[in-house]
Amino acid sequence: MTRDTLVKNASIPAESASAMPIPYESTEFDTHVMATYGRFPIALERGVGCRVWDTSGRDYLDFVAGIATCTLGHAHPALIETVTRQIQTLHHVSNLYYIPNQGELAKWLVEHSCADRAFFCNSGAEANEGAIKLARKYAHTVQEIEKPMIVTAKASFHGRTLATITATGQPKYQKNFDPLMPGFFYVPYNDIRAMEAAVTELDEGDQRVTAIMLEALQGEGGVRPGELEYFLRLRKICDETGILLIMDEVQVGIGRTGKYWGYEHLGIEPDIFTSAKGLAGGIPIGAMMCKTFCDVFEPGDHASTFGGNPLACAAALTVAQTLEQDNILQNVQERGEQLRARLRAIALKYPSVFVEVRGWGLINGLELSAETELTSVDVVKAAMERGLLLVPAGPKVVRFVPPLIVSTEEIEAAAEVVEGAIAALVS
């Protein structure tokens, strides 16, 4: 499908697609908003499906999706209907009262995962905070560990709160925020010998490992999938020692990988796992889920003012039901295979530029060679100039995370843009 046809299908004039981006005048914005983001110079104001438009009228194919968040794309009819109906009735009440659709959402999550219980919050960082707190209480009350340790992976990413940046195994996120939280230790990802050594070495006096917290696929760490044999051995270690296995599914959960949960690719079940990002398709929500045996929280132990309110739960339930009813997981699997095949062809065409294509479903990374001077930001900018939004996953990996409803034609259009962008960069 041509670019003009894609634009026509989105009900906008074809000529808007050919215009170059007009840099957003951000003087007033930058004066009043804290500079915590390195923003690209465009401002997006509306979207339909997998396409968005900036304030100048320029359209883009969106393969960022709010960083793996807009599960059903933009302005999905089911989500519009649900959110409109819910905001007209009841959008927020305190968790001091029962919230019926929170119970419905928890039931869906439990029936479609290995979990028995769910706690709702607002974000992935909060979900991971909840998992850390639950593991620590379990350590003190069940395992009788006075100084519990949680082992995480180098190159991981678990959030921006003080506890979750400590859990994150990347010093660049921790710089100037010390003193960090005690109780964390880092090992290389997919390295079972390092994990075994850590579990042994940290068993000293009144200190022991209470939990291992890992992503099924490292997103911010370069789109690096977990290895099956590693996680099978890891699950065995946890079973033998009583250590809790926590899986961070914030980026890869709720269908992103072609399965509802990333851990399903790894032949194991976690004891605790977290979700957020795509769970409500862009409406803020997070969830921490666990098996009954480690649900040691009692009233007053943990809470969230906005967590699991009627609006967020209605949206999340609609996303979940739409994934199931519309068989979207099959689309994720097929479009993911298509995208990886196209990206591999591009990598083969430019062997001095690219090293590898990797990923699951619709979370994929294109890694640039350490020998090339090009960075992931260079590729992202070149693609943006041609009407495709991508996102870096570190300095040398370009991440592709489109909405899960992306079409065959849109995958092809994105690949053509990437190939054109690379050709221009290396010419």
What does this structure look like?
The protein is an alpha/beta fold and 427 residues long. It folds into two domains: 3-33 and 49-75 and 327-426, Aspartate Aminotransferase, domain 1, CATH 3.90.1150; 90-325, Type I PLP-dependent aspartate aminotransferase-like (Major domain) (Aspartate Aminotransferase, domain 2, 3-Layer(aba) Sandwich), CATH 3.40.640. 39% of the residues lie in helices and 18% in strands. The chain has helices spanning 3-9, 15-18, 27-32, 65-68, 77-87, 100-111, 124-143, 162-167, 171-174, 192-201, 228-241, 310-325, 328-349, 376-385, 408-426, and strands spanning 44-48, 51-54, 59-62, 117-121, 147-153, 184-187, 207-215, 217-218, 224-225, 244-248, 272-275, 286-290, 354-360, 363-368, 388-389, 391-392, 397-400. It is globular.
Query: How would you characterize the largest beta sheet?
Result: 7 strands, mixed
CATH architecture call of the largest domain = 3-Layer(aba) Sandwich
Quaternary status: single chain
Number of strands: 17
Strand residue percentage? 15-25%
Major β-sheet strand ordering: 4-12-11-10-7-5-6
| Gross morphology | globular
Overall pLDDT confidence: 94
User: Please, what is the CATH homologous superfamily of the largest domain?
Assistant: Type I PLP-dependent aspartate aminotransferase-like (Major domain)
Which CATH class of the largest domain applies here?
Alpha Beta
Tell me roughly what share of residues is in helical segments.
Answer: 25-40%
Radius of gyration: 22 Å
What is the straight-line distance between the termini? 26 Å
Number of helices: 15
Give the class from helix and strand content and strand pairing.
Answer: alpha/beta
The CATH topology of the largest domain corresponds to Aspartate Aminotransferase, domain 2
The number of distinct structural domains comes to 2
User: Spans with pLDDT under 50 lasting ≥5 residues?
Assistant: 1-18
